[in-house]
Every structure is written in C-alpha cells, then in structure tokens.
Design brief:
Length: 207
C-alpha cells in the first residue's frame, strides 16, 4: 500500500491519502492545478515536504533508486536517452519475454523497439514507455495522461493493461482529463480545485 501523509506542494493544502494494493486513484483538476506535480513528488523526482510510505517503509528509509524502481512514474511525454527504445528497457531476468507480451497487449511488435525514437508517433512512444515502466514489475504505477495521444482502440488496450495491473495487486495513480477513463478505472478520486487552494478526496465507484 502507498500512504501519503501531509504532502505539501506549492499552494495546495497538505495532502494525505492511501492507495491500497489493487486500487486506482484518479487525480482530477484543470491544467495547472498540480496533478503532475503530485505524481512527480510521490515518485521522488522533485523535493517535497511530507512523508511517503510503501508497505510501511518510509521513503527516506529506502535508497532513492530503490524507491523509484518500486514507485514508477510514466510521464505524459516520456524521456529517451538512446536513439531507439530498446536501449532504455531495464535488464531483468525474463525481461525479453515479458516485453514481448506487454508490447502485444498494447498492439505493438518488438520491431518498434529498434526504430529511431524520432520516427515513432507520440502514441507509440507513450505505449512503449508504459511497457518500459512495467518490465521490472513495480509496486506502484504513476500515470500522467496515459492515453492523451491515443486513439479509441489503443486507449482500450491501455485500459485493459491497467486493469490487469490492478488485478495483480499493484497500486495505480492516474492524472487525466479523460472523464471516461477515470470512470472506468478509478476507485478513488482526488479532486483539485481550479484555484489550487483547496482540494478534497472522495471515494467513488466506477460507473
């Protein structure tokens, strides 16, 4: 379980909430309300006040790399540090077979991994980044606008993969403007007010 206590980000009030294993929390709010900043703070990518716990272990009790491997952030426009996606995939036991399965689940083939990043579409990069995030099986997924660049078919594939991750016991946090996506996946919602000066979390059930 991911537990957040008194997280302070910009002008937002202190945030405290839990995301259980197998649960999806959606962070909703207009552009600029702080959705991405919350995800980046939980991923330990930006300095922030407050406490973060994973299965009872506080973030500062873990090495930064270990935390980021367990609590994985997937940006809306992911970064690349090699010419082709393959070089960015983590090397773990059995990873190639897992990569092939994940790619197929998202409507991609292994050949995409050897194409230059520069010629891949935004949607292809977004889906490959999700594969990259899942290869070494993190405990928590932090997804920032995971379907923003996808068509209806690809969006459905991403949703099915996220549902599978929930069934596998992972905690998922999604920041998205897509009300349909949130309605289909989220168990809990954190609503950020337009002014970024107040927020509330309410438990809800998908329709």
């Amino acid at each position: 379980m991911l537990r957040v206590e008194h997280l302070r980000i910009g002008s937002l009030p202190p945030l405290s909430f839990n995301v259980s294993n197998g649960e999806c929390l959606a962070i909703e709010g207009p552009s600029g309300s702080g959705k991405t900043r919350i995800l980046r703070a939980i991923a330990d990518l930006d300095p922030v006040d407050g406490q973060l716990f994973l299965d009872g272990a506080e973030r500062r009790e873990m090495a930064p790399l270990a935390w980021r491997q367990a609590v994985r952030y997937v940006a809306a426009e992911p970064g690349w540090w090699t010419d082709t996606p393959r070089g960015t995939l983590p090397e773990v036991a059995g990873s190639r077979a897992r990569v092939v399965r994940l790619l197929a689940a998202l409507g991609l083939s292994e050949e995409e991994l050897d194409r230059p990043v520069s010629v891949l579409s935004t949607g292809e990069r977004q889906r490959i980044a999700l594969v990259r995030a899942l290869v070494d099986e993190p405990s928590v997924l932090l997804l920032d606008e995971p379907t923003a660049a996808l068509d209806v078919g690809a969006t459905a594939l991403v949703e099915e993969l996220v549902k599978f991750q929930l069934l596998a016991g992972r905690s998922v946090l999604i920041a998205s403007h897509d009300a349909g996506l949130i309605g289909r996946l989220a168990h809990t919602r954190l609503q950020l007010a337009p002014s970024s000066r107040s927020s509330n979390a309410a438990r809800t059930s998908p329709p």
